[in-house]
Amino acid sequence: MPVISRITAKGQTTVPQQVRFALNRQPGDLIARDIEPDGRVAIRRIQAAGIEYLQAVQRSLSEWHTAEVERAKGKL
């Protein structure tokens, strides 16, 4: 069954209690959202030590998301 929450005018939403319980998360804990190619978004729990790793991965992957790379991929 879907768990629904509303997005505010500021782009914020509350993580419903059922989702927090399923993720075993408490106030102040971290979660990550993974955007799938088909538009679905998965939410997962992460440990505080993992945030630096995720940020490093995001930075390294972002350097591959340029117009030049997209043009080169189009030629494959």
Description:
Strands 1-2 form a two-stranded antiparallel ribbon. It has one domain (17-74): Ribbon (Pemi-like Protein 1, Chain: D), CATH 2.10.260. The model has no long low-confidence stretch (mean pLDDT 84). It is α+β, with helices and mostly antiparallel strands and 76 residues long. The chain has helices at 17-23, 50-62, 67-74; strands at 30-35, 41-46.
Annotation keywords:
alpha+beta, 76 residues, 3 helices, 16% strand
Helical element count? Answer: 3
Largest sheet: 2 strands, antiparallel
For the largest sheet, list the strands in their spatial order.
1-2
Helix content: 25-40%
Q: From the structure provided, what is the oligomeric state, counting identical versus distinct chains? A: single chain
Summed over residues and divided by their number, the pLDDT gives a mean of 84
What is the rounded Rg?
Answer: 16 Å
What is the top-level CATH class?
Answer: Mainly Beta
Principal-axes shape call: extended
What pattern of helices and strands is seen along the backbone?
HEEHH
Strand content: 15-25%
N-to-C CA distance: 42 Å
DSSP, total strands: 2
Low-confidence runs of at least 5 consecutive residues? none
Structural class: alpha+beta
Query: What is the CATH third-level topology name?
Result: Pemi-like Protein 1, Chain: D
